[in-house]
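During the reporting period the student researcher (J.K.) took over the structure-prediction task from the postdoctoral fellow and processed the backlog of single-chain submissions. One of the processed entries is reproduced below for the supervisory committee.
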Amino acid sequence: MARNKYPEQTTQKIIDVSLRLFLEKGYDHTTVQDIVDHLGGLTKGAVYHHFKSKEEIFEAVLNSMFASKDTRLHAIMRDNQLNGREKLCAVVSESFGDPAQEQLFIIAPNMQANARFLGAQIMQVQQASRQYIEPIIREGMADGSIQTDQPAELAELLLLITNFWLNPLVFEMEAAQVASKCRLFQVLLSHFGLADWISEKEIARLERYCEMVTQSRKK
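J.K. obtained the following structure tokens:
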């Protein structure tokens, strides 16, 4: 087999084609052969040279979609015009409002049926809580805008609830159900001075995400 002189271009082409197909058909209904058929001459062997499985392709697609997220979150953390509570609100607004987040709810598999992706999500929650959320909470404790003496535990709680309990990819629910859950979450958050962390704007987004997941699973 001739050596591929442009492996990065080939990898990016696979990612781009896969994202388009995932958006059209969803992850569960897209096969590796579907991807090969839309690559304009690349063989299945060439695809497997770069990725061992469809799961690896999906993970590469996600990495590409969210490539700039760390930069945006670090910018929020460095913003000296915001106190801790305001930074925490900015983080959730940034995360929920990211256009890539909307695409995720279209392309993602049913997390209940995919232990690999569910496990990866747990690891990401642990990492993000320590890297982003806990430092912001500690800043809020120092400036008085967040009331807690358990910053690490609160950081994990916030992300576990938003990434799992309020996530229609994990818990199947209608838009009205996620709104009801958010109201209860707001009551809990008020104890920490964070009642507005999940705003009406974020609730509306979650309702829309629920509808998007329902539609994508009908494909």
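The committee noted the following: The first helix runs from residue 7 to 25.
J.K. will present the remaining backlog at the next meeting.
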